[in-house]
Amino acid sequence: MAQISNNLKEKLLTIIQSDYEDCQFFVAASQLLVNKIKDLSKTIEQRKIDFEELRDNIGELGIFISNTEKRLEEVEECYTQLVETLSDEK
Q: 40-61: per-residue pLDDT in tens?
């Protein structure tokens, strides 16, 4: 197997290190979404809930989903940069 150049290593590490924070935000957003889903499930299961409260909770869930999608796009951009950088070296 061919070894990669030090220049390529540096380029890849720069991308990973600069986008590491975006990946952490994705993980945090995903965890918030999971927790919101669990909370909604418990609320529905454990007590009576009126229509308005349920509607509001589902609306909040949509906000969490949207935020998670946005953060995933940032992670995908990091992935694309890595692939493009690697492809440029071939």
A: 999 889 888 889 999 999 999 9
